[in-house]
From TrEMBL:
One of its GO terms (biological process) is peptidoglycan catabolic process. This is Lytic transglycosylase domain-containing protein. The lineage of its organism: Bacteria, Bacillati, Bacillota, Bacilli, Bacillales. The keyword Disulfide bond does not apply. CDD domains: Slt35-like. Residues 130-167 form the Transglycosylase SLT domain. One of its GO terms (molecular function) is peptidoglycan lytic transglycosylase activity. It comes from Heyndrickxia ginsengihumi.
Length: 204
C-alpha cells in the first residue's frame, strides 16, 4: 500500500516537473504576443497614401517628413479622429485653431483662437495671407482647407518651419505647436520611431 502511494507521488512530481517548462513557454508566448500587439497599437503604421504628401511638404518647407507624420499621428491618428473638431475648436487632421490657420489679425480673433470666422473666409488664401495665417492651398484648388489632408499637412509644415523646425530646432517648433511638454515628448516618440523604421525605405 505504501509503495503504491509512493509511486503515485513520484508520478505526480514527475508530471509537475514536465508541466513547468510548458507553463513557462506558454506564458512567454502570451506576454510576447501581447507586448507586440501593444507596440503595434502604440506605433500605428503610417498609411502609405500620406507619405508622398509629407515628402512634398518637406521639400517645400524643409521640415523632416517624419516630424509631420508624428504630428499627424498625435493630432488625429492619421485623420481617423471623429469628429475632426476638438472640444476647444481645433479643426482638421492637423488640429489648427481657426485663428492660427487664418491669422490672428482677423477682427474676431482673441483668447484661445477659436474666433468667429465665416466658413468661406476660413479657406480663402487671399484673406489668410492678409491676416497672417499659416493656411496653405497645397493642391492648387483655390482653397486652403484645414479639413483637407494635403492642405492641413502643408499648413503644419509652414507653421513648424516658421517656428524653427526647418533649422533643426524641433523641440522649440513642436512646443510652439502645442504648449505642452507632454505633447513634445509624444510627438518626438513617434518622430524617432518613424525616422528609424521608415526613413531608409522612403529616402526618395
Amino acid at each position: 500500500m505504501k509503495k503504491s502511494v509512493k509511486k503515485k507521488k513520484e508520478k505526480k512530481g514527475l508530471l509537475a516537473i514536465l508541466f513547468i517548462p510548458l507553463l513557462v513557454i506558454g506564458l512567454y508566448m502570451i506576454t510576447h504576443q501581447g507586448a507586440t500587439q501593444i507596440k503595434e497599437k502604440l506605433t500605428q503604421p503610417i498609411p502609405e497614401k500620406y507619405i508622398p504628401i509629407y515628402k512634398a511638404a518637406e521639400k517645400k518647407y524643409g521640415v523632416p517628413w517624419y516630424v509631420l507624420a508624428a504630428h499627424h499621428r498625435v493630432e488625429s491618428k492619421f485623420s481617423t479622429m471623429n469628429p475632426m473638431v476638438s472640444p476647444v475648436g481645433a479643426e482638421g487632421p492637423m488640429q489648427f485653431m481657426p485663428c492660427t490657420f487664418v491669422g490672428w489679425k482677423h477682427p474676431s480673433c482673441s483668447g484661445k483662437g477659436k474666433g468667429n470666422i465665416p466658413e468661406k473666409d476660413k479657406t480663402n488664401p487671399t484673406l489668410i495671407k492678409k491676416y497672417g495665417g499659416y493656411g496653405v492651398d497645397a493642391d492648387g484648388d483655390g482653397k486652403a482647407d484645414p479639413f483637407d489632408d494635403a492642405d492641413a499637412i502643408f499648413s503644419a509644415a509652414n507653421y513648424l518651419a516658421k517656428n524653427g523646425a526647418a533649422n533643426g530646432h524641433l523641440k522649440k517648433a513642436i512646443y510652439s505647436y502645442n504648449h505642452s511638454d507632454k505633447y513634445v515628448l509624444e510627438v518626438m516618440y513617434y518622430m524617432n520611431i518613424y525616422k528609424n523604421e521608415y526613413n531608409k525605405k522612403y529616402s526618395f
